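Worked example (supplementary).
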Amino acid sequence: MPEILRLQSVSRRFGGLQALRDISLTVNKGEVIGLIGPNGAGKTTLVNVVTGVTPATGGAVVFDGEDITKVKTYRSARLGLSRTFQIVQPFAEFSALDNVAAAALFSKPGESLKAAREEARRHLAFVGLEAQAAQEAATLTLAMRKRLELAKALAMRPKLLFLDEVNAGLNSAEVERATALIHQLAADGITIVMIEHLMKVVLNVCSRIVVLHNGRLIADGQPRDVMTNPAVIEAYLGQQYAQRAGVHG
Amino acid sequence: MAETNIVELKGLRAGYGEVQVLWGIDLAVPTGEITALIGSNGAGKTTLMRALSGLIPVQSGSYLSGGVDLSTANAVTILSHGIVHVPEGRRLFGAMSIEDNLLMGAYSRRVSSTELKRDLNRVYTTFPKLFERRYQAAGTLSGGEQQMCAIGRGLMGAPKLLMIDELSLGLSPLLVEQLVAALRTLNAEGMSILLVEQDVITALDLCHSAFVMDMGRIVRSGSGQDLLADPIIGEAYLGVLKS
Amino acid sequence: MSRSNLILLALIACIAALPMFGGAYALRLGTIACMYAILALSWNVVGGLAGYPSFATAAFFGLGAYIGGVLLARGMPLAAAVPIAGIGSFLVAALLGAALLRLRGHYFAIASLSLIEVFREVVNNATDLTGGGMGLNIPLSASAGVMADATFFFYAMWSLLLVTAVMVMAVSLSKLGFGLSCIRQNETAANMVGLNTTLYKSIAFGLSACFVGSAGGIYAAWVHYIDPSDVFDILYSVKPIVMALIGGLGSPLGVTVGAFVYLGLEEVVWRNYIQIHSGVLGIIIVLLLLFLPHGLMSVGSWRWRRGMKNA
Amino acid sequence: MARSLPLYARLSRSLVVAAAVALSASAAFAQDVIKFGAPLPLTGPLAPEAIKQQQGYDLWAEQVNKAGGISVGGKKYKVEIVYSDYQSNTPRAVQATEQMITQDGVNFMFSPFGSGAAKAASSLSERYKMPTIASTASSPQVYDQGYKYLFGTFTPNDTLTTPLTKIVKAKAPNVKKVAILARNDLFPLAIAQEMEKSAKANGLDVVYFEKYAIGTLDHSATLSQIKSLAPQWIFVTGYINDLLLVRKQMSDQEIKADVVSMIAGPAYQEFIDAAGPSGENISSAAWWHPAAKYDGKDIFGTTANYVKLFREKYKSDPDYAQASASVSGALFQMAIEKAGTLDKEKVRDALAATDVMTFWGPVRFGPTGQINSLEPPVFQLQGGKAIVLSPDIIKQGEFKLGVN
Amino acid sequence: MFAAQILINALVLGCLYACIAIGFSLVWGVLNVINLIHGSFIVLGAYLAWSLYQGFHVSPWYALVIAAPLFFVFGYVIQRIVLNRVITAPVLVTLTMTFGLDLILNNAMIYYFKADYRKLTLKPPMGSVSIFDVVVPVDRLVATIAALALTGILYLILRRLRVGRAIVAVRLDRDAAVLMGVDVNAIYAIAFGLGTALAGCAGVLMALIFPISPLTSTAYLGKAFVVCVLGGLGSVSGALAGGVLLALIEGVGSAMFGPAHATTLSFVLLIVFLILRPQGLLGRKGFE
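After joint prediction of all chains, the assembly is encoded as:
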């Protein structure tokens, strides 16, 4: 499979804190990758660095053959790199429709507002929010806002989609619905990197898992292999659990 | 007179503005015990702690401590009842020295300087590292030292109930062990502890009893050992190993 | 076209009838009112739509007045000098905006405030071109009498107001306005959907400066004499904001009504309290902010209220 | 405080009087009052000047009304002055002028303060054919616009600097190098430029000529630089606060020179009071000085009488700004009485034909309307008092060298 | 020698600038409010010193002691009654609010004191001291020492006192401070009171040096702005560094390019600093 994203020794430092150390990673077209790790491991920072929200302090990011390390966020968004936010970031005063329309409008130069709204309707329908199209984003429920976030990301016709905890705070029915959507996107050929805490979703959806811990990449491979990797279990669930898993396993 | 529960919640609801996060929490923290609160990210644990310490208002339901209704109390009043919150991410005053951070912990208590000295010394005895660096800016400490400082700052508030959010976050196992040992000692001296912890085993091994949260509700409670064997823990939290 | 925009156009049309009713003094007040409405509407593009608390209005007013004034003094006709003042202000603002609009909140406010100071001192020291502290004399256009002159400048300012209002409405209905609104609500997210926020903010800053600068150009021709401390007066920055706050941020109608209400109040206060009028003005500002924080139009156009949060 | 309280009380009283007059004017006695409009910068940076202007106008109005009023064709008219605050803001000044002409129905106008605002407002006077006297505009550009209705009581700026240079040249042969420091503002800068011209014309070497920004708080660097150039004559222009600051910092830095001149500070009593001993031997020039000895035909009579009346009312000595305001009123009064009518055209012609001695000096207006009959006095602070050095007819003492 | 004189001038003036700015910086840092009344507070302090000296022969040193509590209460009350109601509003609102308050205070001063210039002239004057050829006026020197003492007192308050620690804590992390039981509104009022007291004391010192008039308030405010941005917000050492830097820029700038350009230079530098280093020279690192 041809690669779509390559990280070469990417680092990010916040003052005294080394949030990312020397991360090297390749993402191939059509993959669905789970990016996991305990709280504070650096997952969101990684996504921020790739999307240009926080610039890397070292290393390089190559997207679709282009070095985007120093490229501004809006440029990489237009290149086909899109994301959702862990804490949803809607345009609060806009209707759901206009939220999605904004994404359709600005990701493609020359798009008209009218055409963008038309397109937005399709994406809203896809995530099941057509009934809420006229509703102000701030008044949507959390689950709806998460789906809105997804519709926004899709409206940008991404080549690579980062999903940052799309399921956090959702109930199990909502999670199932979201999982189905992700499956469908993967089937449509969109490359996906998802940060996810719900392991059942990760295992259900992802073909590959990457584990971060304390800013380091500690595992990268098939779900089975990664999940039985003692370093992962120790990092993710604590040393004692790792020992017990060893005893039982 | 000793109450059996230092905190008792019935049907507590809270959230941020229009977004409701907690949907009726029933929970009791027994006096003198260590209670753990576990659950996945976004389950509402931190929100619950913020409601308990008065950082966000309680929308409805009851919140009693020692027979006193605290549901409408502000942070200062709640502190005066000995309920002290060590927040997630430590939230130290980074530019202030360790000692100044500790002194801030005692801010709400109007006590003599000798008493302050004594309490400071107690914290320094518990965490000797802090004493060594007491004039160093808290922001320059390592993660483990920061957590010690945060707990120490909490201790300076003379807590009856110490609430710690994410004790082990970002810490090495050795450090976690040290902190756990310190908490056991404090508990043995009579302090009640409410712990939010993502290292499930650490939490369940340490606590007397635990509550499992999901989607803003308490979905299970029981002793630590019972819960370790409970399949719901796997559902909510440890799904990974069961597959 | 929304109802409030139609009302605004109707309001502006009504103002055009002023010369039929008022004398020269009324026309002067009308000219001033149109001028401030232009400043407030222009400010609204940056402050209301994009949510950046700009205090740079006076800087571009002065800049436009001086560009216009210098050209007029060298014999250029008004019809050429004013557009050049507008375009010049646009370019300067757009370029500066690219650098300044990276700042947020307080920092942006101060930087934009400092622009006034910098521009004033630059003009002050460019004595050969601007006359520096001696001020700049602008020759009278062939005087056709009191009323003719007053009417001419009234209509000049009125036309600019009309153009400004149409511009502001067009912007708010366009992709640009849509993008600025995104920036106000959530700049990170706006970047994330592929919006070139720097470009949009610069254009907004430039557009706003363009009409302010043009107003400055007309003003220079109108008063015949400008000096740096008069045209680079911080009140030209503050008053439009107060007007927008009175009317309710964001809505062009609200801002325009706010401008007229404010000037009406000021005229009354000024006439009746010579010694303490600026204090009375201060009291009005304080009371307004305490008791009517969302402005007069807050009942009518509640949607715009949220703009305040990000402002 | 001791000084300001009664002053404030007086001012508010005069306002009350003015208000009362205004009220009554609108009623039955409307015809018996002549209204003069006076836009003043009561607030903003020029506020101190506004107070002086107001004092001058008020004193004149009080004297006229005490004497029964201005007689026009045998009928006595009381004088009323309509004030307005234009906030030291030129467009406001113009607006206020138009308001007074069109709304308040004033009969005659006084210009707003300074050359800039007077010029801006003068076009209105011309359009409305409103006789107007500018009591504080010296710049010839104000007058050479070809306007018929504008008159001014200040001679051009060079009439201040030229006699000053002459005296220095004659009495201080050691002076070779001049340093000029000017406030970057209309009047101070214009004076400084005249000074530069007259210094060069007299063969002096201008070793330093710089402007300082309005609102400058500190001059120490500038003064250090001037000190290093060792000029024998230091010439500074600005408003009182600037000059006080410069003087203070000069003595702080122990800067000495044979001649130190300041315009316009030493003409003001406040400057003399505040500078104290450090004001000694500072020279200056102004359009008028209370030491002048003119025997006027106006309502105030002799200069001495004017000073006496002023002292009685304000407990301080008048300076040129106050006197100019008063004489402007007196000139109007004489022109109206001579014309025998309130007709604006006729009063204008009477003003243009003015040739009279006043407490201010001989008054004749040139073809542009600017006064051309005055020889402004040069003076020097000696022993805490301003001593007139020229012109010879009012000379009080000799020029002294050395400012420490 | 000329260079040495410029340097000494700048050092002395810089400390005075720091004194002008420090209260402004405290309020900005802790309350996140750009306090446009600050300049008028300074002028009011100067009038207090002048009135006490002219009317009652109270020396400015005693006036400092009188001004501090008076201004503290004044500031405390203004914050509690007016500012606190809009404290969480966006910068536009708080800024416009302080602008309105400034109009009121400044107009009141013009009304009461008139706009003319007063000067507090000590009798006898303090003169100057000269070392080699470098001259330093004694009153500036003394005012500088007093200014340093004031900043030192503020430093001690913030470092040593319980309430000072709380002010710093609120500045660093408002929510965490609430968790410590800090009454944020009270701390805001105290910080604003302290800022006002510092402005009043600065005014007393400035009365020794500069002519007094309500019209000078904008000049003081302008200096405070630049010093804060250059030095960094809410930090005593930052204010000192910013003050000296500004004085140096002005001094050297006016010697090199002429005094008319000194102000321009300082404001251009302010904008450059804002864009490149918004935290200022010493911002964010230190709090003291």
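Two points are worth noting when inspecting this output. Chain E has eleven helices and two strands. Chain E touches chain D through 52 residues (CB under 8 Å).
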